[in-house]
Amino acid sequence: MMDQTEIKLPTLSVCIPTWDQNGLGPSFLEDALNSLVRQTYKEFQVVITDHSVTDVMETVTNKFTDVLNIKYIRNEENRGNGPHNTNFAIDNSDGEIVKILFHDDLLYEDNSLELIINEFTSDDVVWLVTGCNHTDADKGKYWNDMIPYWSMSILDGVNTISSPSVMAFRKNTNIRFDESLVMMMDVDIYYNLHSNYGLPKILPNILVTNRVHENALSWKFDWKTKDEKIYLRKKYNL
Q1: Which residue from 184, 177, 179 is spatially nearest to 221, judged by alpha carbons?
Q2: Per-residue confidence band for 8, with pLDDT thresholds at 50, 70 and 90
Q3: What is the value of pTM for the model shown?
């Protein structure tokens, strides 16, 4: 573990957009928060924006308020729009660096945040992506280690980076997720960040676990992909 007093680290917010996800949300969020409790780096804020109608996700959040610095906000706007809820979390964060963590994903290593925040001591690093692996709903196994790399075919759906949970970036870029998208929200923001700030810093370490399950939005809205690809080509005049 690095000596956090040796260098001045930028402030960090972990942004978790959440919803009840057909009853699975509470256990997923608890897993995500437990992975944050275990982090070797402790000086971070957690921002949870909740699109649920009930109190189930807030109840889970309250279990962790004594061990994590949590800002919880019930978001009643645009319910069901994941990009909006993610942007809402970013805009309500206080950190200079934003780390996205979807509530059904989790940090894989206990030093994930330590390795990430240490990279942002360099002003040259504007956005960063890390390696990841995958698990199922019950975390019964882990598979498919993935090291991200940049592809100019990313807007064609060749996502060589993975989900937004592998990303961190400087909040002052003012680049946000396109709220017209679902399936392509990740590749759009990657392309936008690349167009404005160049290649990301790539940490090849497996630091994030993406959860693959039948209630993931990417399974429910796959039919939107074709139209979203057309939308993005028009958006960027490609």
Answers
A1: 184
A2: confident
A3: 0.94
